[in-house]
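Q: Here's a chain of 252 amino acids. Please give me its 3D structure as tokens.
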Amino acid sequence: MAEMRKREEADAPRPDYRPGAKKLRQQEERKKRAGGFRVGPQNLPDGTYRRKTQEIKRNLIEKAQIKKEYAKLKRTGKVPEKREELPIPASLRTDEERERKRAKAMNVGDSGSDEGDGEDMPESKSYEVAPSAAPHPDRQSLIDNQTAPSADEENQAMQNHEQAPRKDRRERKPKAQPFKREHEAALKRKAEAEERRKAREEAERQRQKKVDEREKFRKAMAKARTGGVNGQRKLGKESTVLLERVKRMVGS
């Protein structure tokens, strides 16, 4: 039992009475808390997911700062209680003023008819400003001066518009091929193989042609060298065959 008590006393933290120990301990605790909140795991490599988590963290910090500033302004009374309304367009404001004048004129007319001794009050219509449907004088002068194009001019303009290429039309970019370089190399190898095959076939054809010519010459010479009835050589046939051979040799 005594040994257990001694072990517990040895394991228990001892108070530090050195000068500045409390301040150092507070600084260490502050450093531990200075990490802030975390979004996602901390061991992500540099890439898309790490940038995404950093962007989410920045957005959360900005929203928290905005809420904090809004609460501060609300405490100081700088935030109006009434929501700001959108500005009214000039056309709607004119209509509202016209309606207000009309209502005021009607009220004045009713009060005058009740209190007056039969005096005629101006009609409420005098307060109304009837909108004019006529165009502005400058616009009317432009319309009058402008001449309407003829049918031939319209057709010519339509044809020019159809024939002229559209400048604002965006050119379509060529579709990207995933293996363009490999495809071009394969086409090049295929073309080279086709050329070699054609050259080989041409050489084979020329060789076969020469073989046929030699065989034909051999048969013609063998036939010409056969003796006649009396065993004489046929010089006329031999000369013809030899002449053809000389012509072929000279021509080549």
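Q: Can you summarize the key feature?
A: The CA atoms of residues 154 and 205 lie 68 Å apart.
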